[in-house]
């Protein structure tokens, strides 16, 4: 068991993006009626989340200095974002107690990690810097999804997190090294994915039914603007991939799959919340693009595991 825990502790924090990517595909597949495949991907994501939790704990126990060094970096926030994505999917499945438990876990970890990361952000950063927004908006989405059962207070918390997430996006954008658009290894896609999860948070806030009148109109307009900006980023990043192909496997490609899937889910959810019908068709198409990218990424991931497992252990 000690050897097993040590193996998973050796994984970099960015592997949490694998949970995020697989979890959001599960949500999208559920929204489009592919429930069986959705449940399979949910359990894949959950299993990976549990294994990473074991590794995270093992690293804390065995090498606290290394754990602290990892926790100070933006990729560490994938732990929070992954937890919230799983929470949303379990709530859709009707397992509210599990979703609430995951919300509690994420809410306890988020402020500690966010403060640590913000204190160590560089002036110029790769796409992972947008995880400060993603983790915050992930909490907003889960709170908004649970609000109909928990009450208006949780919806108000979700709105506060939504606004904070937007502010954090502006900070991340100011620090983002735009050269990463053509040189990044995969995490540069989070620049768009952060807007996608922000749009999803807006859609879930609208769907909560708490706001009306001018507040509802403002929320709807903001959500549609975020969706448009996300799609613009999607187009720019896709063109950059064609202009400068980066086809080799890299763990950071999970941070490409997640924004692809999140943009699809956001489009589907915004369509339902705002009545903009064409976004539903777009979301369905984008979901299959995300699935198509998930498959080779998962294959590369499995091969990397096989290679790691074959190495001799001290």
Helix segment count?
13
> What's the end-to-end separation, in Å?
14 Å
Q: What sequence of helices (H) and strands (E) makes up the elements?
A: HHHHHHHHHHHHH
User: Can you summarize the main beta sheet?
Assistant: none
Q: Report the structural category.
A: mainly alpha
- As a percent range, the share of helical residues equals over 70%
Overall residue-averaged pLDDT value: 89
Uncertain runs with pLDDT below 50, 5 residues or more?
A: 1-10
In angstroms, what is the radius of gyration? Answer: 18 Å
Percent of residues in beta strands?
under 5%
Number of separate strands: 0
Shape: globular
Quick description:
Helix content is 80%, strand content 0%. The chain has helices at residues 2-9, 16-31, 35-62, 64-71, 78-92, 96-119, 131-150, 152-175, 180-183, 190-207, 213-243, 254-274, 278-310.
